[in-house]
């Protein structure tokens, strides 16, 4: 079971041993898989700041069980297998913004939109470049969503079959985190912000989550600080960043200027102990004695 050493920080008990193995050269890092996650926002009223849609991973999950997170997941290789109808900034613009090639940009943005639909039932697409789907409920929509989850249907095929345009203009790239080198499952994850489209509702459509909540960034951060809400470092870091904005629109407007330099934890040996740190995020620093528990 994961420890919560500082507030509600997710800290697996196997980390110290894996960090020592990495430092000694006995552990070879695995290549991270590309992924995308979306902070879906909606306004709550003056002074409260926007609420963000979060899901709690089932405690039975091998990775981050019980931790609160956003809808998201790995890139499906088929997400770049054909050109999709596209609204908003061009693929060239997105490639430059995300630091990848055109195919990679399409796959990452498609993953962000697809995972939001798979896990929250919210679809950032519409029948025209200036429209968005207003209702994604019903048996036919659910059949398509299930087919996407099962990878029986690619997202490009789904959009094409329904005549939908992917609304990349509804997304803002926010930050990028790479899973530490000592983790057995690694992801290179782009975090996006988006506002809940008018007429759509979130629901817990994920088999990996046992509950979902709409909660303001400040409330979620306070819950983490009290040790009541378990989170991984990128989740609480992005929540703290969102507290600066009064509305979803303000957060989206701020996204284009955000630095997307990847945040990657480093582990180094200092005076007989391992120091685990995330650049620019001192609150997550851990000091691990060579033969003891972290502090």
UniProtKB/TrEMBL annotation:
CDD domains to which the protein is assigned, alphabetical: NUDIX_AcylCoAdiphos_Nudt19
Matches recorded under InterPro entries: NUDIX_hydrolase-like_dom_sf (IPR015797), NUDIX_hydrolase_dom (IPR000086), NUDT19 (IPR039121)
Cofactor(s) needed for function: Mg(2+); Mn(2+)
GO molecular function: hydrolase activity
Keywords from the UniProt entry: Hydrolase, Magnesium, Manganese, Metal-binding
UniProt domain Nudix hydrolase: residue ranges: 32-237
Protein name as it appears in the record: NUDIX hydrolase
Species in which this protein is naturally found: Streptomyces lusitanus
Lineage of producing organism: Bacteria, Bacillati, Actinomycetota, Actinomycetes, Kitasatosporales
